[in-house]
Amino acid sequence: MAEMIAARIFNERKNNRITEIYGVVTTGTNWKFLRYCEQTIEVDLNDYFIDNISKIIGILKYLVDSKSQSEVGTTNHKGLGLNRGNHGGIAPTLFRRE
Prior knowledge:
- This protein has 98 residues and is an alpha+beta fold.
- It has one domain.
- The protein is 32% helix and 21% strand.
- The chain has helices at residues 2-13, 53-71; strands spanning 20-26, 30-37, 40-43, 48-49.
- Strands 1, 2, 3 and 4 form a 4-stranded antiparallel β-sheet that branches.
- The longest helix has 19 residues, at 53-71.
- The chain is globular, with a radius of gyration of 14 Å.
- It starts with a helix and ends in a 27-residue tail after the last helix.
- Residues 72-98 have low confidence and may be disordered.
């Protein structure tokens, strides 16, 4: 989480407005996904395990695709649901508030 905040600060100092920063924490076998947006860090409540590698790859692909789309101005990340577009059913809503 500290690295996500540091990335925001670094980019602000370089006048790069980044609205979202994604993070991944992994032990190699367990995976957790995070998003830093508007001064809030959201943590995916699900744990992903290496035995379901297609799910992990799907989420990573979704994050990369979202980044690519936002660079051309077509991505809108309103709300917490990140299940826009066609990801082969691999990337469900990642972030939920409790």
